[in-house]
């Protein structure tokens, strides 16, 4: 009886025929292709999100530099940071591409030789340069986009797609608006930064509108800063 039960179980077991195996190959291939496409889409979306977050962080940090001043390791050690919050005066260039900030000085004789200047360069990226009297000048440094600093003391160069920077400021001559009092003294500065990140180069056949929609993303940051030590 026991042997008969075993034989019945063996007879009831079904294998997979060659035809069934071949028929299942297209389904498995389709599932595999779908998985690959999903992974590629995930990686692409992750990289784009990461770059967009960097754009937001860099724009925010750039505004904070203007507000409170820019510190650079050894160069500004022991020096007062020169920012809008403690500024005595500001000057906006006629072209609108740089803002120069002057701090309040105890000895006004040397007031004009202490300043920080924020400039938009030809690549539509933000640079800062400072001067502390006749003794120290902090050379021009790129602050937007922020670059990684390597052990060899060299900053990573901003990435470009052809001649177009990966990160750029879209309103280089319309960033700052200086408000003055009845005496012409600067009292408040409006800041508007419109930044753009490019994910990839423009593809063949893409229109300008398609290129902007599919390959780039923008964001705008706005704020106003009162000059705490403005001349009245």
Percent of residues in β-strands: 25-35%
Structural class: alpha+beta
Order of helices and strands: HHEEEEEEEEEEHE
Helix content: 25-40%
Shape: elongated
What is the mean pLDDT? Answer: 82
Largest sheet: 5 strands, antiparallel
Number of helices: 3
State the separation between the terminal residues, measured CA to CA. Answer: 111 Å
Radius of gyration: 30 Å
Strand order of the largest sheet: 1-2-3-4-5
Total beta strands? 11
Poorly predicted regions: none
Oligomeric status: single chain
Brief descriptors of the model:
single chain, four-stranded antiparallel β-sheet, 11 strands, alpha+beta, elongated, 30% helix, five-stranded antiparallel β-sheet
Explain what this protein looks like in three dimensions:
The protein is of the alpha+beta class. The protein is built from three helices and eleven strands. The chain has helices at residues 2-12, 18-68, 208-215; strands spanning 87-92, 98-103, 114-120, 126-132, 136-144, 160-161, 164-165, 167-169, 176-180, 186-198, 216-226. The strands form three sheets. Strands 1-2-3-4-5 form a five-stranded antiparallel β-sheet. Strands 8, 9, 10 and 11 form a four-stranded antiparallel β-sheet that branches. Strands 6-7 form a two-stranded antiparallel ribbon. Strand 1 (87-92) and strand 2 (98-103) form a beta hairpin. The longest helix has 51 residues, at 18-68. It is elongated, with a radius of gyration of 30 Å. The chain starts with a helix and ends in a 6-residue tail after the last strand. The mean pLDDT is 82.
